[in-house]
Automatic annotation (TrEMBL):
<dbReference type="InterPro" id="IPR002938">
    <property type="entry name" value="FAD-bd"/>
</dbReference>
<dbReference type="GO" id="GO:0071949">
    <property type="term" value="F:FAD binding"/>
</dbReference>
<feature type="domain" description="FAD-binding">
    <location>
        <begin position="25"/>
        <end position="351"/>
    </location>
</feature>
<dbReference type="Pfam" id="PF01494">
    <property type="entry name" value="FAD_binding_3"/>
</dbReference>
<dbReference type="InterPro" id="IPR036188">
    <property type="entry name" value="FAD/NAD-bd_sf"/>
</dbReference>
<keyword id="KW-1133">Transmembrane helix</keyword>
<keyword id="KW-0472">Membrane</keyword>
<dbReference type="InterPro" id="IPR050407">
    <property type="entry name" value="Geranylgeranyl_reductase"/>
</dbReference>
<protein>
    <submittedName>
        <fullName>Geranylgeranyl reductase</fullName>
    </submittedName>
</protein>
<keyword id="KW-0812">Transmembrane</keyword>
<feature type="transmembrane region" description="Helical">
    <location>
        <begin position="27"/>
        <end position="53"/>
    </location>
</feature>
Length: 439
């Protein structure tokens, strides 16, 4: 059963919001990365009134390795952006390498198990995120951009969010019975709850990305880079532009900057990679970098899907894996689908109109969190092990020896890391796609 526009909101909102109906929605989604935009498309497609709040103007560059595992391609297709993805994305990713110092271990990647989409590909975030938000707009999502969530009051059943525009003094109040946190993990959300100021630690991971043209990276090759105090990756994405993204520990970065005063942090990282990794040196020998390095962090790998603050969380807001396995966007897209299946009752007997009720939301959050742990817990643990081993010389050297001796370990890691199997089953994809079709 589909709900009609705004019917959840009218039933559950406090009276002060009922008087300004233009600001009342069934659901508020904070953040229009792959997680937020996917959830917005699915819920709007099922007839919900959706407000999607994004503080940055698109297209925008984002720190990311930009590889989309093949397991996500059926989801992008069902969201209505598959054709554009196919048209624009870089070459099919069929090989993986582990590069450390002077050495490279190289092997084939396994194909994905679901029909039609065997290989992952890379697409710049300026393009992917814009495709998704444009689709959300096209299916009737009301987009507040560039607006930022400023404060939150209320709770499940009656949320009241204050927004302000970025770059002007305009503000707005949006109300909804359901709120989804899809704001990522690199900044605090102003929920009014004191999340505490994080102290800088030597082990903090800072993330960097730059694009290069004319690089001599083989098409379809996905090298994972290992170096002391960090890890990274390279890939050829859309328009034959190469993306180099990496994470560096704060203590290593400080040491690098100390020895290279006057250059940006990204440039110091690039100089180190050229110096210490033969694979990077060779790849960049023919390349130019048309833009600046961009940076983000510190990263917060870990699980926070089940919180007591009443938000439903998807994407990095729910949990962030170490990006060494390049599965963050998979988890963003797939967690959005899992949550929407829960909210839309696609797999249950309950009726959708109960979704505004606070007690129902609590149960739904528990059910969704349980699924999240089952589907993503193993790859979070694998990513953490692989990341920590790759950043320390003794374990990283051991990994290199293992990968050279048994090349099959790398594709096995890709399978364990979730690259070949989607966490959303085919029946759920079909039922949510059918809901979209009925509007
Ligand atoms: C170095 C590196 C390499 C990576 N490589 C890969 C890879 O190759 N493949 C892969 O799948 N993943 C990769 N990832 C992970 C991937 O980038 C993230 O997991 C993914 O972006 C998470 O998507 P999301 O939608 O949850 O959040 P995000 O993409 O972070 O989107 C959140 C959005 O919310 C907005 N926002 C934040 N706060 C507010 C607010 N208060 N109000 C309104 N809007 C707000 C932000 O502007 C942003 O647009 C990498 C990450 C790093 C750091």
């Amino acid at each position: 059963m589909n709900i009609r526009q705004g019917s959840l909101a009218i039933a559950f909102l406090p009276t002060d919001c009922k008087s300004t109906m233009e600001n009342t929605f069934d659901v508020l989604i904070i953040g229009a990365g792959p997680a937020g935009s996917s959830a917005a498309i699915l819920l709007a497609g099922a007839g919900w009134s959706v407000a999607l709040i994004e503080k940055q103007l698109f297209p925008r560059r984002k720190v990311c390795g930009e590889c989309i595992a093949a397991s996500n391609l059926p989801l992008l297709s069902a969201l209505g952006v598959g054709t554009e993805f196919e048209r624009r994305a870089g070459p099919a990713l069929r090989k993986v390498a582990f590069m450390r110092g002077a050495h490279t271990a190289l092997t084939e990647l396994p194909p994905a198990t679901r029909s039609g989409f065997a290989w992952g590909r890379a697409l710049g975030r300026e393009t992917l995120d814009t495709l998704l938000i444009d689709k959300a707009r096209a299916v009737g999502v009301q987009i507040f951009q560039p607006w930022s969530l400023n404060s939150v009051r209320g709770g499940p059943g009656a949320w009241r969010c204050e927004l302000k525009t970025v770059g002007s003094k305009a503000s707005a109040t949006l109300c909804a019975p359901i709120a989804i946190d899809a704001h990522g993990s690199w900044e605090a959300l102003p929920t009014g709850r004191d999340e505490g100021r994080r102290v800088h630690r030597a082990t903090d991971l800072l993330a960097f990305k730059a694009n290069f043209v004319g690089a001599s990276l083989q098409d379809g090759l996905l090298p994972v880079l290992s170096f002391d105090g960090g890890y990274g990756g390279m890939v050829v994405a859309d328009g034959r532009v190469m993306t180099l993204a990496c994470c560096v520990r704060r203590d290593r970065l400080e040491a690098l900057r100390h020895t290279a005063p006057g250059v940006s942090a990204g440039e110091a990282v690039e100089a180190m990679l050229r110096r210490e990794c033969a694979g990077v040196r060779k790849t960049l020998s023919t390349a130019t970098r048309p833009g600046a390095w961009i940076a983000a962090g510190p990263l917060h790998p870990g699980i926070r899907v089940h919180n007591d603050d009443g938000f439903f969380r998807i994407g990095n807001a729910a949990g962030e894996a170490h990006p060494i396995i390049g599965e963050g966007m998979s988890m963003a897209l797939q967690s959005a689908w899992l949550l929407c299946a829960e909210l839309l009752g696609a797999q249950r007997e309950e009726r959708v109109h109960t979704a505004g009720d606070a007690a129902w939301q609590h149960l739904a959050r528990c059910r969704y969190a349980r699924q999240w742990h089952q589907r993503f817990g193993p790859r979070m643990r694998l990513a953490s092990l692989f990341a920590h081993a790759s950043m320390r010389a003794p374990t990283a050297d051991a990994l290199l020896m293992l990968f050279k001796a048994w090349p099959g370990l790398l594709p096995l890691g890709a399978i364990w890391g979730g690259k070949t199997r989607c966490a959303v089953d085919a029946a759920t994809i079909a039922s949510l796609t059918a809901l979209r079709g009925t509007i």
